[in-house]
Design brief:
With 421 residues, the protein is an alpha/beta fold. It folds into two domains: 45-166 and 301-372, Response regulator (Rossmann fold); 169-295 and 379-404, 3-Layer(aba) Sandwich (Rossmann fold), CATH 3.40.50. The protein has helices spanning 2-27, 30-37, 66-80, 100-113, 125-138, 168-181, 195-210, 229-237, 250-262, 277-283, 285-288, 303-316, 322-341, 346-355, 404-407, and strands spanning 49-55, 83-84, 87-95, 118-121, 141-144, 161-163, 186-192, 214-221, 242-246, 269-272, 292-295, 367-368, 374-375, 378-383, 396-402. The strands form four sheets. A six-stranded mixed sheet has the order 2-3-1-4-5-6, sandwiched between helices. Strands 8-7-9-10 form a four-stranded parallel sheet, with helices on both faces. A three-stranded antiparallel sheet has the order 11-14-15. Strand 12 (367-368) and strand 13 form a beta hairpin. Helix 3 packs parallel to helix 13 (322-341), helix 6 (168-181) packs parallel to helix 7 (195-210) and helix 13 (322-341) packs across helix 14 (346-355). It is globular.
C-alpha cells in the first residue's frame, strides 16, 4: 500500500516538474527563444566598416567642422575599440569645398567604387542636400551633424538620412523667441545667400511674427564675403532693434567685426542665430558679450562633457562645438548598431538605430524620429562678459533648456512623406 502511494507521488512530482519546465520556456520572451535558436550571424560587407566624412576642410566652415570633425569621428572609433566583431573600422574624408555638385560626385564615387558604408557630417546645407540624395539613391545612411537646413527632415526628407545635432527650425525657436521676449520685436536680416541662410531667415521670421514681432527687411550677401559695408548700411537705415545674422562661420565672424567697427551696435543689437564657441574665441568676449545663441552642446556643461572635451582639446588645441560632438555621438551610435546586429547592411542598421535610445556624453535618452530628426533638448546661452569669464574657453552661461518637443518642428506640421498622418 505504501509502495503504491509512493509510486503515485513520484509520478505527480515528475509531471509537475515537466509542466514547470514547459511553462518556464513558454514564459521566456519570443526574442530570447529566437536568439537561443538562431545565434547572431556576422556579415560585414567587404570585411571592413567604412565611414566617409564630407567636410569643409579649408574655407569659411573649416574651423567649425574640418579637421575637428575628423578627429571627433576618430575618437568615436577609438573609444569603440577600433574594430567591430573583429573587423576593422576605417574613416576616410574629403573636402567638398562647399560645392553641392562636388559633394554629390564624391558621395557617388565613395558608394560605387570605394565601398563606403555611410556618410558622416557633410557640413553645410547645400552640400548635405545633394549628398543625402545620392545616399537615398544608393540606399546608404547619411548621418548629418554639420548642416542645418530644416528641410532635410521636412520636404526633402528620406528614409536613410538622420539629421543629428540641430537645425534652423530649432535655432529660430530657441534664439528668435528668446530675443523677442526680451524686447527685440523688430528685425532686419543679414542672410547668407544659399540654402542654409534662406532656411534660417524663414524659420526665424516665422517665430518673430508668431511672437508678435515684425520683420522690417533684409538683405542677402554672397557666401564667404569680406566686405559687409553696403549690407550693414541697409541694416542701419532700417532702424530695426535686432539685426539677425542668418549666416555662419567666417561670414558670422566678419559681419560681427564689421558691425562693431561700423558703430552699428551702439543703437542696434546683433542676434547671432548660429554662433559657436569658435566664433566667440576668434572675436573675443569684449565684442560678443551679451549675445544670445542656441546650441545642442557646450563643453563645460558637466563632468562628462568636460572630460571628453579635454581629450578633444589635446588633439586640436581648441574646445569642441556641437557639430564635432554630434559627429562623435552619431558615429558611436552607428557602430553600436553594427555591433548589435552583426552587419553593416543599411536597412538592418537603420532600423536598430531608430529603435534604440542614444546615451553618451552628447545626449541622454535621444531618439531618432520617423522623419529622421534626432530628438534632444536644446539650450539657450548668453555670452559672458570678460569679467564673468574665469578660465580659457569659459564663454557661455545657460539661460534656458528647451525640451526637444518644443525645440524641433512637430510632426503635425511636417510635410515629410515618411510621417504618418
Amino acid at each position: 500500500m505504501y509502495k503504491t502511494a509512493a509510486k503515485f507521488s513520484l509520478k505527480k512530482v515528475a509531471l509537475a516538474v515537466a509542466v514547470a519546465l514547459g511553462a518556464t520556456v513558454a514564459l521566456q520572451p519570443a526574442s530570447a527563444q529566437k536568439a537561443a535558436k538562431a545565434p547572431l550571424v556576422i556579415k560585414i560587407s567587404d570585411g571592413v566598416v567604412k565611414i566617409g566624412q564630407l567636410n569643409d576642410m579649408n574655407s569659411l566652415y573649416a574651423d567649425l567642422t574640418g579637421q575637428g570633425t575628423v578627429e571627433a569621428g576618430k575618437m568615436a572609433i577609438e573609444d569603440f575599440g577600433g574594430k567591430v566583431h573583429g573587423f576593422p573600422i576605417e574613416l576616410v574624408y574629403a573636402d567638398h569645398q562647399n560645392k553641392a555638385d562636388l559633394a554629390a560626385a564624391k558621395a557617388r564615387e565613395w558608394f560605387d567604387s570605394q565601398k563606403v558604408d555611410i556618410l558622416g557630417d557633410v557640413g553645410a546645407s547645400a552640400t548635405a542636400l545633394a549628398a543625402s540624395e545620392v545616399a537615398r539613391q544608393r540606399n546608404k545612411l547619411a548621418l548629418l551633424s554639420g548642416p542645418g537646413a530644416s528641410r532635410l527632415t521636412n520636404e526633402s526628407c528620406n528614409a536613410v538620412t538622420i539629421h543629428y545635432a540641430w537645425d534652423t527650425y530649432a535655432l529660430a525657436q530657441v534664439v528668435g523667441r528668446g530675443v523677442v521676449k526680451t524686447g527685440g520685436d523688430s528685425w532686419f536680416f543679414l542672410t547668407a545667400d544659399y540654402a542654409f541662410g534662406h532656411a534660417l531667415e524663414k524659420d526665424t521670421s516665422d517665430v518673430v511674427k508668431a511672437e508678435g514681432g515684425k520683420v522690417v527687411g533684409g538683405v542677402r550677401h554672397p557666401l564667404n564675403t569680406n566686405d559687409f559695408s553696403s549690407f550693414l548700411l541697409q541694416a542701419q537705415s532700417s532702424k530695426a532693434k535686432i539685426i539677425g545674422l542668418a549666416n555662419a562661420g567666417g561670414d558670422t565672424i566678419n559681419s560681427i567685426k564689421s558691425a562693431n567697427e561700423f558703430g552699428l551696435t551702439k543703437n542696434q543689437r546683433l542676434a547671432g542665430l548660429l554662433l559657436f564657441d569658435n566664433d566667440v574665441h576668434s572675436l573675443g568676449l569684449q565684442v560678443t558679450q551679451g549675445m544670445l545663441l542656441a546650441s545642442a552642446f557646450y563643453w563645460d556643461m558637466n563632468d562628462e562633457t568636460r572630460k571628453w572635451s579635454r581629450r578633444f582639446f589635446e588633439r586640436m588645441k581648441k574646445m569642441p562645438n556641437m557639430l564635432q560632438a554630434g559627429t562623435y555621438s552619431s558615429t558611436l551610435h552607428y557602430l553600436k548598431a553594427v555591433q548589435a546586429t552583426g552587419t553593416d547592411d543599411t536597412d538592418t542598421v537603420n532600423k536598430w538605430m531608430r529603435a534604440n535610445p542614444i546615451n553618451d556624453m552628447f545626449v541622454k535618452n535621444g531618439r531618432i524620429r520617423e522623419d529622421g530628426r534626432m530628438m534632444r533638448e536644446m539650450y539657450l546661452f548668453e555670452v559672458k562678459s570678460p569679467a564673468e569669464s574665469k578660465y580659457p574657453w569659459d564663454y557661455f552661461k545657460l539661460k534656458a533648456t528647451v525640451p526637444a518637443e518644443q525645440a524641433f518642428r512637430p510632426l503635425s506640421q511636417s510635410v515629410c512623406p515618411l510621417v504618418k498622418k
